[in-house]
Specification:
six-stranded antiparallel sheet; about 850 residues; alpha+beta; seven-stranded mixed sheet
């Protein structure tokens, strides 16, 4: 979607007219206009020139977003700067000065006999001329209403300024006619003096300006979150060039440049740490206040703050590619889109003004027909014009969307579109991927159980020594645990990875073995208590690894992908909302059920192949609205298929691209927070729409005089203008209340009626075939050896080797780690050439 900046819009009818004009351009497939950010997003093949021409012909201005800023050197946040409020404030103060003088003459002197100059006292024509001049000055000060209002009327697209211009002009022209009639009939001067509506004409303009200023000020605050994000962007970076430090503008930093950051400085661009270690405050991007430790090899992001150490980094993403720029773009794009609920208000706004003009004319004619004086009948028509407020309708949705989106961004929850913000709160089923979503995605040591005659320290030292040579993910967990305990690094020799998930090495002259219960059981006797402990650990979803030293069993170490600390609480909050929580994983049933019990989910669906997750989500959608939460490449199809896809921020770029909502903190507790925010935003929109519709539904009949005969209520045009000016302000102020909403408080969650979950039919996994290129096979005996070690691997259905072609055709029921296959091949002294 290409972005454009639009100028000259002042109400919802304006944005509707621009949308209509651009939508008719050949090649445009979709268009969305945001009144709040003065932005327009266009999809299709139409050229920039054609789109800008369509906007110009509709009576507005347009330019490609960023083009004007690039020419003028203005920073990006200038596009969101509030230029409107200061201009309206100057207009208001000037108008008030002349309005007070006008009210003194028209009300104070004429009605309450306040003192006046001798040449004015007792001179009705003089009083009329003074009112004429003062009103004319106020009208000139506020000429924008008349220029834009009548221009839009000429283009047959009247909007709010048209109503104001017609109401004020009608009051002025009728008063001018009364002044002229007074000069023709001096004897009736007192009668005509009370027919003047000059003060109404000026008061209407002034009060509407008050409302517009309050509205502009409040609208400016709705983009505060986006503006604060833009202000985070560093302006300079310190690069290393030729061995010297050089400070350059941020725009000159290129990918691959080496930059340095001192304590207290902002990190200028995304990069990877080459040297040094520090703690980085990432709250600007994630909302998490606890600093994150960074060392060589770790990623750092632009706009985060280096708190403690000196670091040297290499730039990996610069300009529009940085994490901060992507967040700003997501928030901006969301503001430029429309929520489905806004379409109702837009349709009403599109026909609102012509209908109101028609009602005003009818009201005037009806009162004339029943014998009312022309002045009073005209007052009814003017009241209808100035009390009607299409802006309250048009602003009801976008201001709430903008504030909700900004609040989410502050807390590390990014909604890509207005649709995703509206629809997230309507979900009924939440589907959670296991690895990286419910769990941390990184195996850790959870239990250490030493055998009789051995100590925990001896067990850990032996395991640490042998696993340091292995590249298996479970080995890394044990090595990491050993590093944390600062265990001595004893060097082993003759390390081998054995078929059947086993490791062998020598520490001095003592043989060390490590591996699964099955492997160790084939090498030495395993006591019943250790077997029972291993069985219990496996039942909890953990992987028990046994270790021996010179044939003596040392004990068992359990490794597992540990559940995140906040996962059970997040699942409980989702269930309290009345949502069904389903865990979807490719793991075996036993492990999945164990994790599911710990997390507290309603249903566990295990053994699902990556391509089967999308099919499962499709079946769940038949039972209710589905939110899918995942982090991996294999989750992308399911994220796309779900009604709303949520990607964990630490996940892959593909998953983030496929998702509708991005959780920057990688915390599962942000899932209920996102749903809570969506519900609050939708509730705020409903309040705004209710107010806007009720205001106009009650206000227009009141202004037209429907209640005069029933209750004696007669609305002065000035009070109608005051009501109109405050209506939009009330809508925007209500939306700003969202800034006080607390996303992570579960106490006030509204519970919906839970759906009944039905059993899901798992799709039959398609067989996966890979070709391994193996060197060193010389005969059928070699083929048999390779076939045997490969078929012992979990997930390998069959292996068909050919020593003549140096390859093996492997059929798998699920993806198998390439490193594992390579390890068993090389352990038999064959050459691993590659895999297809």
């Amino acid at each position: 979607m290409k972005q454009y900046q639009v100028t000259g819009m002042s109400c919802a009818a304006c944005s509707a007219r621009v949308e209509k004009a651009v939508g008719q351009v050949p090649g445009v497939t979709a268009v969305s206009v945001s009144l709040l950010t003065n932005a327009m997003g266009v999809e299709g093949t139409a050229s920039d020139a054609d789109i800008i021409r369509a906007v110009t012909e509709a009576g507005y201005g347009a330019s490609v977003k960023g083009a004007e800023g690039a020419k003028s050197g203005a920073p990006a946040e200038d596009a969101l700067a509030d230029h409107e409020t200061p201009a309206l404030k100057r207009r208001l103060f000037a108008s008030l000065g002349f309005l007070l003088a006008l009210m003194y003459v028209s009300m104070g002197h004429v009605m309450w006999h306040w003192p006046a100059p001798a040449w004015l006292a007792g001179n009705p024509v003089g009083i009329g001329i003074v009112q004429l001049v003062l009103t004319g000055i106020v009208m000139v000060i506020n000429q924008k209403f008349f220029i834009s209002g009548f221009k839009s009327l000429w283009h047959r697209s009247p909007y709010m300024d048209t109503l104001v211009a017609l109401g004020s002009a009608a009051s002025f022209l009728y008063s001018l006619w009364s002044l002229y009639a007074m000069t023709l009939h001096p004897s009736q001067a007192e009668h005509y003096l009370h027919e003047f509506y000059f003060e109404s004409a000026a008061m209407i303009l002034t009060l509407i300006t008050v409302g517009k200023m309050l509205e502009a000020r409040s609208k400016g605050r709705t983009t505060d979150a986006l503006k604060s994000l833009m202000k985070l962007a560093p302006k300079t970076a310190t690069l290393l060039r030729g061995g010297a430090e050089v400070t350059v503008p941020i725009g000159e930093v290129r990918k691959g440049d080496i930059f340095v950051v001192r304590p207290g400085e902002n990190i200028p661009v995304d990069g990877v740490v080459l040297e040094g270690h520090t703690a980085v405050n990432e709250s600007a991007l994630t909302g998490e206040s606890i600093p994150v430790d960074k060392a060589a090899g770790d990623q750092v992001s632009a706009a985060t703050v280096n708190q403690s150490g000196f670091i040297r980094c290499e730039a990996t993403r610069v300009g529009e590619d940085t994490t901060l720029s992507q967040i700003i773009r997501m928030v901006s794009d969301a503001a430029a889109t429309k929520a489905p609920i806004a379409k109702v208000a837009d349709k009403v706004s599109g026909v609102f003004v012509p209908v109101v003009i028609g009602i005003a004319v009818i009201a005037t004619l009806v009162w004339l027909a029943v014998g009312e004086s022309f002045g009073n009948a005209l007052a009814r028509g003017i009241s209808v014009l100035v009390i009607s407020c299409p802006c309250a309708l048009g602003l009801a949705t976008p201001v709430a969307i903008m504030v909700g989106n900004g609040l989410g961004a502050k807390n590390g929850i990014l909604f890509k579109t207005a649709v995703s913000l509206e629809e997230t709160g309507k979900c009924q089923i939440v589907v959670l991927d296991k690895t990286g979503t419910i769990t941390s995605g990184q195996p850790v040591v959870t239990d250490v159980i030493s055998a009789q005659g051995a100590s925990d320290g001896e067990l850990l030292r032996a395991a640490y020594a042998i696993e340091k040579k292995s590249e298996h993910p479970l080995a890394k967990a044990i090595v990491s645990h050993g590093d944390q305990l600062a265990l001595p690094a004893e060097e082993v020799r003759d390390f081998r990875a054995l078929p059947g998930n086993g490791l062998e090495a020598y520490l001095g002259y003592e043989k060390l073995l490590g591996g699964s219960v099955k492997f160790i059981g084939s090498q030495t006797a395993v006591p019943d208590d250790i077997l029972q402990a291993a069985e219990k650990l496996a039942g909890e979803g953990k992987t028990p690894l046994l270790f021996t030293r010179s044939g003596r069993l040392l004990g068992v170490i359990a490794v597992a992908d540990a559940i995140k600390e906040d996962s059970p609480r997040a699942v409980q909050e989702l269930k309290q909302m009345g949502l069904r929580v389903v865990m979807l994983t490719g793991d075996n049933e036993r492990t999945a059920q164990a994790i599911g019990r710990q997390a507290g989910v309603d249903q566990v669906i295990a053994g699902v192949m990556p391509d089967g997750k999308e099919a499962v989500v499709r079946q769940l959608k038949e039972q209710g609205k589905v939110v899918m939460v995942g982090d991996g490449i294999n989750d992308a199809p399911a994220l796309t298929r779900a009604d709303i896809g949520m990607a964990i921020g630490a996940g892959t770029d593909i998953a983030i691209d496929a998702a509708d909502v991005v959780l920057m903190n990688s915390r599962l507790s942000d899932v209920p927070a996102a749903i809570r925010l969506s519900r609050a935003t939708l509730r705020n929109i409903h309040q705004n729409l209710f107010w806007a519709f009720c205001y106009n539904t009650l206000g227009i009949p009141l202004a037209a005089g429907v209640f005069i005969s029933l209750l004696g209520w007669r609305l002065n045009p000035m009070f109608g203008a005051a009501a109109m000016s405050l209506s939009s302000f009330c809508v925007v102020s209500n939306a700003l209340r969202l800034n006080l909403f607390r996303l992570h408080e579960a106490g006030r969650d509204r519970r919906i009626r839970p759906v009944e979950l039905k059993d899901v039919e798992l799709p039959q996994p398609a067989a996966i075939t890979r070709t391994l290129h193996i060197g060193g096979m010389m005969c059928s005996h070699c083929e048999g050896t390779v076939k045997a070690v490969l078929e012992e691997i979990d997930g390998v259905v069959s292996a068909v080797p050919s020593h003549e072609q140096d390859l093996v055709i492997v059929t798998m029921s699920k993806p198998v780690d390439e490193a594992l296959m390579r390890g068993v091949i090389e352990a038999e002294d064959y050459e691993w050439i590659g895999i297809e």
